[in-house]
Amino acid sequence: MDADFWQPYVTAAMEQVNLPCIVMRGGNPGTCPTFIVDDSYVIKFFGQLFDGERSFYAELYANRLVKGQESIPVPGLVAQGKLFEGDIHWNWPYLIFEYLDGISIGEAWGDLSLIERQAVSSEMGTMVGALHSIALGENGYFEPNWDLFRNFLKTQQANFLNSMKNSGWLPLHLWKQLDAFLLPPDQLIKPEMKPYLIHADLTRDHILGKVQDGKWNTLGMIDFGDARVGNLFYELIALHLDLFQGEKQMLRVFLENYGFEMSSETNFAEIAMSMTLLHQFGENILTDLFRRCPCLEQIATLDELAEEIWGIG
User: Fold this and answer.
1) Which residue blocks in 241-301 are alpha helix, DSSP H?
2) Which end of the chain is more exposed for a tag (fewer CB within 10 A), N or C?
3) pLDDT tens by residue, 218-260
4) Do 80 and 135 share a structural domain?
5) What is the CATH number of the domain that holds 185?
6) How many domains does the chain have?
7) H or E element: which one contains 115?
8) What are phi and psi for residue 284, nearest 5 degrees?
9) 6-24 mean pLDDT
């Protein structure tokens, strides 16, 4: 994120697509080097680390699918390119978006009233419902089947126990219960349902807006670099545990406006907890949760933990 280091590369990329670059500054630190240009554009470079190639194409094609959906505010995708065309090592692909002059919902959440937080949760339910209703298969990248998502969950589960044992981020007495608790991937997916596009990382950093007269006004949903074909339960993990900070009332409001029928899932908490443990960023999300709520470490079983986090009746 060193603006001085990146200045010539940002300038070169903007010149490639015939856009001005007079003043640039760093954006919020994240996985990808991201810079704000002339308070008009945001340029995002995708490095080789953290599966950068997949993230580039996921963000590119997800934004193409979302474009024009009135109920899903996103910054417009202005241009794309490669910094070093033809480089056999790494060509540093980039995307350029419209700049949204706002703050993240995370910066405002603690100052919003209960009514305003409920309003945000309601809006998110409508927004995410619209996202999940977009037809797949038209652009050839997000295929309308469960194959990749099922294989992803199987890989996560296969690598799960070793990563848990080595990292120690789950209390030992809960770690010993994992084999008996975790639902297999085939029980986390309803094959008869159509798969859909999910953002997969709806954290408090990825919803931008402004607070006006004490009310939150959403400007846009950003960062589709982790987008994939998946289901609602996977989408809920970052949304509930990061954006909503685990507030069950917000989750209830979200689900009501999303159109989810709680009666359709008798083991909602068990499925959600299994998906939390298998989530790509599950370790980070749960580590943060245990830090905020250290009393959770005293819970005796994973079933009780699931009910404490996800049990909404």
Assistant:
1) 248-258, 268-278, 282-292
2) C
3) 999 999 999 999 999 999 999 999 999 999 999 999 999 999 9
4) no
5) 3.90.1200.10
6) 2
7) helix 114-132
8) -65, -40
9) 96
